[in-house]
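notes to self, project folder thing:

trying the whole complex as one job this time. last attempt i did each chain seperately and stitching them together was a nightmare. two parts in total, labels are on each line so i dont mix them up again. if this works i'll redo the older ones the same way
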Amino acid sequence: MEWYLTRAGAKRLQLEAEQMQSDEGSRRFSLYHDTETGDLMWRGPVSVHGHLHQDVRLIYDENHPYEKMTIYVRKPELMKHTIHIHPDGSCCVMRDEEWSPQWTPYTVYLTVLRFLTDYYEGRLE
Amino acid sequence: MINARKVLIYESGVQEVKKDEMFWAGKGLESGKYFLGMIHSNRVFEITDFIDAGPNAVRTPASYSPDNKYAEQRKAELQKQKPDLRLLGEYHLHPWNGPTQPSSGDFCQLREIKNGIRPWYIIMLVNAEGELKFWDIDGKEEKLTEVPHQVLKLPENAKEELLSRISQIVQSEALAKKSVAIVGLGSGGSVISRYLGVTGIGRLVLIDNEELELPNLIRHEGTIEDIGKPKTEICKRSIESHNPFTVVETQVIDVLKEQEKLEEILDTCDLIIGATGSAKVNNLINKISLDLNKPTVYGGVFEKASGGYVLAVQPNKTACFNCAFELASKSYAVDENVSRNYGIPIEELHAQQGLYVDISLVALMVAKVGLAMLQEPDFIEKYNFLLYKNPFSIQKAKIERRQDCASCNFEGWVKATEEKLLKEPEKPKARAGFFSRLWRR
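result (full assembly):
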């Protein structure tokens, strides 16, 4: 069963949605279920230093919250000149070792902001 | 049905069987014997005595019937000398080359006996090449399963003598009934398995999916001859060569990819040891340990093995891995996924530094805490976290449960999150100066 269909999972998802609504930036994200892949994700725009990415995706792991979310920054995609952007286009905004079940899409969203700032300021290796 | 986990047979017994095999296989006739011994509480069957087929046994090229009257008489004589002795099963010689597979007749006979007066009964099959195998019937699926065996080059009744120097200080009978799973058999896990394996614990389940590589040699139980072999097999062999009375099972699985299987395995154990040092794996183990209510011990070393930690968890009673995440997630794991995520090339992964002696110190602490969790778990009321700092400093601490732990206190997490939502949105704790810079622009 998907994590968000359990009682605790549904409650968690509801709170995570409220968190996303609580901030001016993350409020522009919507919950989206990809019926083809089965992925549940938050999609929305992010703008950093005047660079607008219209489709940033924060995808839940099927084992949420025990495994980290997968991040894609699209429209436009980021140049893959750094090791922090995987060949499939997903972004390594945190190490596996940094993830804990305390993380939520909102905290991931904040990390994406930090990641994109580092990216545009040329601080990523 | 009572299923054997392992069979121990003494070298003298093997010789006795081989002598019978050479004699009767040469004549092209089937043969057999009954064997007797003890069933230990961890379901290890120890074969100590054999009963010959008897003077009136009937042997043909395709069948064998023992002289049961003779066997009954002989059994009574043996049991008079050794009251604990019980009839464990019988050996059959199939006088042809090829696999030592039981025939359908053997299967039916075994099933009948197991469903009747001797639910523990097993059979040993020997072929003309002298290869021997033990067979049992899986109670659930009603199918034949091979039982692993070990030949002992030791004097008979070796268990008591083997454990004689620890029997006064461990709860032998209680430990013999316990099962412990060790997840991760790297530098730390291999030491933990080796030392827990000689405490009298009944069953160890070793879980790892890697093979021994050259850089592992100076930090592992394996030797040069073991390069390329699964770490599970190396650790199993190491334990069995010191203590054959412990059942050692191996599971070569990628725990992150086969989570359901991992959960099934851990459900059969009384204690879990998380020895990968990987926060990702530990998060998964934490979830399973909370769901199954299994006590767990986590251990890891910090960079260059400059120190390490041990965290003992009594699920839903004391702090879980996630409660102590900030303290316990900083250890490093030597695994390929971590290297990829860190962006470290595989060559550099092997350069991760840490002396075996330093890693082993922390591993021994994990083993010691694991043993305490099985015997005297009350220590956890006083401390559940050990911090080792190189050189020679150990601090004990009591980590309290997080009131907002998303893993072990979901209601608390919900409450805390709701409270935060009701308040003004707080400024995120990002890198110092980051948001101020962002807003200025």
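what i see at first glance: The radius of gyration of chain B is 27 Å.
need to look closer tmrw
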